[in-house]
Amino acid sequence: MTAPNLAPCPASDIDPSSTPDFSSIPDTDPIPAPTPTPGAGPGPGADWTALLADPQPVRDVLGVPVPPLTAFNLFVAHFDERDCSFTAAFEALTAPAGAAAEWAGNGHNALEFFLRFTGVTEAEVDGWSHQSTSTVTLTERSAVFAGPGHRISFAYTEVRATRPRGYRTGTP
């Protein structure tokens, strides 16, 4: 089934200056998408940060090699028809390899980060389920998030990521 209320986003209607400013989110670092290289792009199990123009802030926190997106819990999947975008929020109840010592000192035992796709077209949502997303496939211009009983797919023109943020969860 095609996602309701998502009007096509012709390239001429996409205003790069209308992209929300991630700087208002604490501890974030907007990362613009790279210039595409034909035939390149990560699939399942590949380094998804390779799609980011500056993967270093994400890699500094998550470590290298970067865990696959399926290692994180997808806790937000949001289409916004106002600017033809899709936001995916991920979390993990663990201290990441790249920042484990720093975060342990701050009492952080969990992390979250956001991927925001703009210029979204060809959106399809096939079912929805409480079960985990078991497959995430990103290429330079398309994304698929799928699991038992659900599948979200779309084409996009750009993806940005916030720098993973640590926080404390649970009781001491």
Helix content: under 10%
Number of domains: 1
* Silhouette: globular
> Rounded to an integer, what's the Rg over CA atoms?
16 Å
Largest sheet, if any? 5 strands, antiparallel
Descriptive report:
The structure is a single chain. With 172 residues, the chain is mainly beta. It has one domain (43-167). The protein has helices spanning 56-62, 100-106; strands at 73-80, 85-92, 110-118, 121-126, 135-138, 142-147, 150-155, 158-161, 165-167. Strand 1 (73-80) and strand 2 form a beta hairpin. The termini are far apart. The model is unreliable at 1-7 and 10-41 (pLDDT under 50).
Labels describing this entry:
globular; 8% helix; five-stranded antiparallel beta sheet; mainly beta; 172 residues; 9 strands; disordered N terminus
Q: How are the secondary structure elements laid out?
A:
Elements: H1 56-62, E1 73-80, E2 85-92, H2 100-106, E3 110-118, E4 121-126, E5 135-138, E6 142-147, E7 150-155, E8 158-161, E9 165-167
Antiparallel strand pairs: 1-2, 2-3, 3-8, 3-9, 4-7, 5-6, 6-7
Quick structural gist:
The chain has 172 residues and is mainly β. The chain is built from 2 helices and 9 strands; from the N terminus they run αββαβββββββ. The strands form 2 sheets. Strands 1, 2, 3, 8 and 9 form a 5-stranded antiparallel beta sheet that branches.
